[in-house]
Design a protein that fits this description.
The N terminus is likely disordered. With 306 residues, this protein is of the alpha/beta class. The protein has a 6-stranded mixed β-sheet, with helices on both faces. It has 10 helices and 6 strands.
Length: 306
């Protein structure tokens, strides 16, 4: 019996490496099985060809019966060959996707999706918006060490059916969906979109992003001295419960877990200019539990599926 995996021993990098190893191993197993299937199809095809010859030169003189049997056997042979070709094509398509663990980010404009993407891909912030109404204008994909992050347009800023179709197509192909809200008043439209995401049947983690300014030096020091204040448990539980109540109107009882974090401080912690505050920012951001959840999904779900 295999020993259970100890998730705490994994970093995101090592979890992604294991996921890729499982993808390569799964690909080789599938390739071997398709080769066995190909050999079986060749054998069946040979038998069918022999049957056709027997019918052609046999004693059956009812030509209509012979014609029908030949057609049936020919159709079977053709279908088997089509199955083989289809499996080969599908396997190669799957191989392209299995090489990466896919995360899709959902949330309204300015909820922190681009900041989260920068955190997960160890970015420098170039893609983070500066306050424009619509930061992410279309589907954007970023790659880092076998991780694919797809950032879709803000849900309140979707411009018609095309935006929605692109967003949900990306989500339907994801290994994990991260749904972001902020710690101000929850919006009914967000709950409606979360309900639609839940109906996709994919693993979903809710993230509540605490919006506290930290880019000014005075604001940063104030936050670090009082970093527990924005995470008042009673206030945040009430907010999340209110949001769950909105979601229940669309998908009763289908509640997802929500974790609370301060994304901006976690992002700043990985920037060289904030090195002197790095450890304090990491602790204050409370992002560790989110990263642990993602690692768990990569190790347990991602590796298993591959």
């Amino acid at each position: 019996m295999m020993e259970p995996k100890i998730i705490s021993n994994y970093s995101l990098e090592s979890a992604l490496e294991e996921c890729q190893r499982a993808a390569r191993q799964g690909y080789e197993i599938a390739k071997e099985n398709i080769l066995e299937l190909s050999n079986s199809i060749d054998s069946i095809y040979t038998s069918i060809s022999q049957c056709l010859k027997t019918l052609e030169y046999g004693r059956v003189r009812t030509q209509e019966v012979v014609k029908q049997l030949k057609k049936q056997l020919t159709d079977v042979a053709s279908e088997l060959n089509q199955i083989h070709r289809r499996l080969d094509i599908e396997l190669e398509e799957r191989r392209k996707n299995l090489d990466k663990f896919s995360i899709v980010l959902f949330g309204r404009t300015m909820a922190g999706k681009s900041t989260l993407m920068e955190i997960l891909t160890r970015g420098d912030g170039r893609s983070i918006g500066t306050g424009a109404q619509r930061t992410t204008k279309d589907i954007r994909r970023y790659f880092w060490n076998g991780l694919e992050i797809t950032d879709v347009p803000g849900i309140a800023a979707f411009e018609g059916a095309k935006d929605e179709e692109l967003a949900f197509k990306a989500a339907s192909q994801a290994d994990l969906i991260l749904f972001l809200v902020t710690d101000d008043a929850p919006q009914p439209v967000e709950a409606e979109w979360l309900a639609r995401v839940i109906r996709l049947g994919k693993p979903v983690l809710g993230i509540c992003n605490v919006k506290v300014a930290v880019d000014d030096d005075d604001d940063l020091l104030l936050f670090l001295r009082n970093h527990d204040r924005p995470f008042d448990q009673t206030r945040l539980e009430q907010l999340i419960n209110q949001f769950h109540a909105f979601v229940d109107q669309h998908v009763p009882g289908k509640r997802i877990p929500f974790l609370v974090t301060h994304l901006r401080s976690r992002f700043l912690a990985q920037q060289p200019q904030y090195a002197q505050y790095s450890d304090r920012l990491l602790a204050a951001s409370r992002f560790g539990e989110i990263e642990s959840h993602i690692i768990k999904e990569v190790v347990e779900l991602g590796t298993f599926l591959r």
